[in-house]
Amino acid sequence: MNIKLNRYLAILPMLSLLVACAQLSQMNVSDIEHQSVAKNAKTYAEHNRLVDYYDNLAKETATKLMEMKGLLKNYEDHSYYYGRGGQDFQSHTVANIRYYEQATKDAKKHAGFHRQVAAELLNREDAKSAESSVQSDSNQIKAKMSSDSGDLNESLIKAQ
């Protein structure tokens, strides 16, 4: 029976380490994918999608931050429940709070950047559409001006 307990106690930390590493790798893969999408984003719609992604990420990390702050308050208020391990829980939770605070700041910064780029792209598209409408108006004006000369105006209008 003692051998079974020793095996269990030896396997448990290894499994928990494996689970912790598996979660980190999934987060890094999705982060890498979004970084490559962010680098290749060129249109208003792509930047707008990135704004939505980073806004959602900021909300999620802010929610987790509030959970961690609640846990820390619980650890501080009821430290006698946790014994010697309570200080480890507190320090781990403080580290998580710092991580989520930084992650929230970064997500908000990225969302702001992509929001700004999207707005600039939208202004450029509006400027291009306004410019093309001005050009088409000027072409129509030229056609009207040349319409006084007779039959030659039809070939002029078609050429422009």
Blueprint of the fold:
Elements: H1 2-40, H2 44-77, H3 79-82, H4 85-145, H5 152-159
What does this structure look like?
With 160 residues, this protein is an all-alpha fold. The protein has a domain at 42-123. The protein contains five helices and no strands.
Average of the residue pLDDT scores: 75
Unreliable stretches: 22-26, 143-160
Structural class: mainly alpha
Count of runs of 4 or more consecutive helical residues: 5
Largest sheet: none
Approximate helicity band = over 70%
- The coarse silhouette is elongated
Q: In summary, what is this structure?
A:
The protein has about 160 residues and is an all-alpha fold. It is built from 5 helices and no strands. It has a domain at about 40-125.
Structural key phrases:
single chain, elongated, mainly alpha
